[in-house]
TrEMBL record:
Residues 46-359 form the Beta-lactamase-related domain. PROSITE patterns: PROKAR_LIPOPROTEIN. This is Beta-lactamase-related domain-containing protein. Residues 1-22 form the signal peptide. Keywords: Signal. It comes from the Eukaryota. Gene3D superfamilies: DD-peptidase/beta-lactamase superfamily. InterPro entries: Beta-lactam-related, Beta-lactam/transpept-like, Beta-lactamase-like_AB/R. Transmembrane segments: none annotated. Pfam families: Beta-lactamase.
Amino acid sequence: MKNQLFTILILLLIVNVNLILSCPEYPTPIDIDQNDPLLVKAYAQVDELIQKKMKENRILSFIATIVYQDQIVWSKTYGNVDPLDPKSPPLTLDNNVRIASITKVFTDLMMYQLRDKGVISLDDPISKYYPEFSVRDLYNTKREISFRELASHQSGLPREVPCDFNLLPTDNCTEEVIIENLSKTFLILPQYKQTHYSNLGIALLGRTLAKAAKTNYEKYIFEKILEPLGMLNSSFSYEKVKDHMAIGVDLYPNGTYTHAGILELGWGTPMGGLFSTARDMSKFMSFWMNENPDVLDSSSVQEALSPIALVNDGQTAYGTPFEMYYDSVNSIWMKSKAGALDGYRSQMALVRPLKLGMFFSSLMYISSPDVFTRDAMKIIIPVYEALLLEKNSKPQNMNPEEGDQHKRHHPDQIPDQELVGQYADNEGGVFVVDNSTGYLLANFGDNNNYNVSHFSFDFPHVKRIQLVNTDPYECVFVEDGSNYELVYFNFGEKQSVQVMGQTMYLISKNPNDPLPSTSLNLKPNKRLNI
């Protein structure tokens, strides 16, 4: 045990000190040996964790999958399809479960698709497409509730649909009844006052989006999301999945179990009505980590995974509709979504920089912050980072042509030595490029070094710079825009660079020469910081 921990620590230290970023950067996900002893041990520890948690919570059946890049790299099922019948078949990754509120991610994905197609704007008032909708507002706000506010739980709407939950799939809770009930309901908060989780808000979002797209919500999700992602065993119809359904149970305070009933959600389906499988959910996680332009543009994927509101603890945030948690031990954000209905508690958790995803599902409702994914990630993340660093994986360049470099001819690349030297302007600004460490590093005449890295094979004279040591600046301050920029090298009659809007000319090929006496040793962005 001590030897393996020592190995991990050594692996974390083998990267050149100049490449260790004060603002956390993560190694590029690449293929790694899934039979590596460190990974095998980590997966075994996850297995032990799940069994321990199942025993503590008296869970009888459980499903767990871990996805790396676009593959299931570890999975295990515990118990039977019917937890109360030991003679029922063993649980599999292809048994359906209720993913409950994880359905909300599909609803928000529909919103981004329609926005990208020009059907809606995120800031459109929903009354534009759903004129029947109204709610009582005592806050005198002039803005109407928008798609963006519904998707991120910032609308101020109550938590639940104003109709008895057990009656949602019946004629007692038709659209007309719900809209009538809403017209008598008050907003509980003004918009953006506080994040207030609202099942009603997401149900309203899905139904309004369907009206904007002039289609049926359930039909749209299947044709535009489930089918393109190959999630063909997922459905909103219990009739279609009941033969493969894993049966959820409820645990009573007296220690007895009973089968949980399954009711569809009627008008409220967009808030939590999808039935899916662990294998299908692995495909969904892979989409969010690897993207698929046929489903959603990469920029919109990034937008959907971005926070909208920071919760007061400073470590939790809400997006549209991902719930985000900062793992301070591993210095990384986890993007997740949980779902809970009678008999089921599921969690999808993503660590996108490492392209790691987990889908855990309990066939019994449990009251917990998550379904053990945080603890499992704390086991897995350090091992993946150590193994990737061991392979000398470089920090991600956010290269727009990544994966395409071998498909077409590119201009000759410029040797690193051609870029090295001191550049200066007539106002005292300097830019120094050095490769004496084996890596291209740059600075502006002070102690803050930047990695100089590839940007585009078609534009070899353009390089990316990224701040690597932030002293005396803290992480929050380097996000002002000066820590991640492009440099344009010009090899004309007089060699020069253009960086942060300034043009500087080569004055020496030796980066270690004394700086010009006119240098102010100031970064250009400090003079230009407006």
